[in-house]
Design goal:
The chain is α/β, with parallel strands linked by helices. The chain is built from six helices and eight strands; from the N terminus they run H-E-H-E-H-E-H-E-H-E-H-E-E-E. The chain has helices spanning about 1-5, 20-35, 55-60, 80-90, 105-115, 140-145; strands at about 10-15, 40-45, 70, 95, 120, 160, 170, 175. The longest helix is centred in the N-terminal third of the chain and has 12 residues, at about 20-35. The N and C termini lie far apart (about 45 Å).
Length: about 190
């Protein structure tokens, strides 16, 4: 019903169950809405056992005007996922990836490098958030999310980029929530 009648849908909130086969239904549903809901500005999807990269790519390529995304308790969400979101949703202002156990600060940095207008990000209870890896500043976002450059402790992405005139542009980030990230090291926040 959503895919046929809601072409102007601007907000969507879904919560999946952990029932058998729900990973299939998550990807099927998100895949079905992605080509239709091009007006989507707000997406909140919680407790999705899996979101494969192909589905996430299709969704974010179609919904390029997303300003807010909340993918809480999505076990398969990773740094590569955040790179895909960042590359395809450049006007993102707010993101919440709380309780996504595979996300690291490197993924957050990749996202912020792509979305310089981002004002709010929350990654509460993300066990892999420990420290930034050390990537050379010249690595592009595309390279950082590729398998060749996503090796831990070898690569680093900076949260700035140059505009057309060569001037540095910095993130507009105002609020960061890393509550209950018990493995977070204090030096990770000093850049």
């Amino acid at each position: 019903i959503i895919t046929k009648s809601c072409k102007k849908l601007e907000g969507l909130n879904i919560r999946n169950s952990t029932a058998t086969g729900s990973h299939f239904s998550s990807n099927l549903f998100l895949g079905a809405i992605s080509p239709i809901c091009t007006s989507l500005k707000t997406l909140s999807a919680q407790n999705l056992p899996t979101i494969d990269i192909a589905t996430l790519t299709a969704l974010t390529q179609s919904c390029r005007i997303l300003t807010s995304i909340s993918l809480n308790d999505c076990c398969d969400l990773s740094d590569v996922s955040l790179g895909v979101i960042g590359q395809n949703c450049p006007v993102l202002l707010s993101a919440d990836f709380s309780q996504c156990p595979e996300i690291t600060l490197d993924g957050v940095r990749i996202l912020l490098t792509c979305c310089l207008g981002m004002e709010n990000i929350s990654c509460m209870v993300c066990d892999e958030i420990t420290n930034f890896c050390e990537m050379p500043p010249q690595v592009t976002v595309t390279e950082a999310v590729s398998h060749d450059h996503a090796q831990r402790d070898k690569d680093r992405v900076i949260v700035r980029k140059q505009d057309e005139e060569g001037k540095q542009k910095y993130s507009k980030l105002r609020n960061v929530n890393l509550s209950y990230c018990y493995n977070l090291k204090p030096e990770a926040l000093i850049v």
